[in-house]
Amino acid sequence: MLMNFFLFILGSAVGSFLNVVALRYKPDKFLFGRQILGRSHCPHCRHKLSWFELVPLLSFAFQLGRCRNCQKNISWRYPIVEIISGLIFVFIPLALFSAYLLPTTYYLLSFLWVFIFSVLLLVALIDLRLSIIPDEVHTLLLVAGAGLTYLERDLALFERSFLGSYSLIFGFGENIWTNHIIAAIVGGLIFGFVIFVTRGRGMGMGDLKLAIPLGFIFGWPDIFVLIGLSFVVGALVGVYVILFRHLHFKSAIPFGPFLVAGSALVFFFGKELADFYFGLFPV
Q1: Can you tell me the distance from the alpha carbon of 63 to that of 72, in angstroms, rounded to the nearest whole number?
Q2: What are the helix (H) ranges across the chain?
Q3: CA distance 88 to 11
Q4: What is the DSSP letter of 73?
Q5: pTM of the full predicted structure?
Q6: DSSP structure string for 41-66
Q7: 66 has which bridge partners?
């Protein structure tokens, strides 16, 4: 329990940093360039914040969600992102714990998956703000994917797939590098097809570029399920915003956050979702 507490604190601090990067990112600048430096300030009155106003979660709570200087409301985005990031640091190591993994492999995999989902959280924040996915994140995810593939090279397909033994149905399990390369190609082809059919109106190139490293990270057949779930989540959110937010049917909604949601669903609930799906067709 104590370790989980410290992991949550560390994760919330990382979430605070991700908020800064996402809010200060400029499309014509390097993602982690000089623009992310400098003192934080209130977006309303420009008051420079002291250290005790920047403690993740606690500062927001003690200040009752208001700026100490101008008393304007602070966006709930800050504590929400910090909580999500804290939960990433706690629950990913818990989900990965397995008798199949050696301790060193377990710690390295936990680090890489925490890094991947931290990057994906940043992707969602930037895409929601600017409808852009920076190219730098694709490189980071591909490098992390290569590390994952290397660490999992001696595991059987059902041990490295989040679908468990259901992954054996789909094949391509003999060589992990072939498996993950095929998954990256499949991810790119699916989004390339959507872009071609809709002439770029239904999907952006950033989504295609993101699907490729996600395929390399999750492998086959997880990427296929991930993309399917992303479209389901996107459809549900689309119906909600049309009915309750009064947006037009053709209104553009960033798809990156849905790919992130699909990634989380596969990672945490892939086996359970597969159980549910195949349970609909009893033999």
Answers
A1: 11
A2: 2-24, 58-62, 77-96, 103-130, 135-151, 157-160, 176-198, 205-218, 222-244, 256-279
A3: 7
A4: B
A5: 0.92
A6: B-TTT-PBPPGGG-STTHHHHHTTTB
A7: 73
Rounded Cα–Cα distance for residues 82 and 17 (Å): 9
Cis peptide before 221 (omega within 30 of 0): yes
**CA 151 centroid distance within chain:** 21
Q: What is the pLDDT of residues 81-126, one digit of tens each?
A: 999 999 999 999 999 987 567 788 899 999 999 999 999 999 999 9
Taking CA atoms, 275 is separated from 29, 85, 168, 182, 194, in Å, by: 45, 28, 14, 24, 29
DSSP code of residue 72: P
Which amino acid, residue 188? G
For the record, the structure tokens of 274 come out as: 């597969």
CA distance 121 to 165: 29
Model confidence over 222-253: pLDDT tens digits? 999 999 999 999 989 888 887 776 666 566 78
Residue 5 is encoded by which pair of tokens?
Answer: 């507490």
* Burial group, residue 142, by CB count within 10 angstroms (0-12, 13-18, 19+): middle
CB 25 within 8 A of CB 130: yes
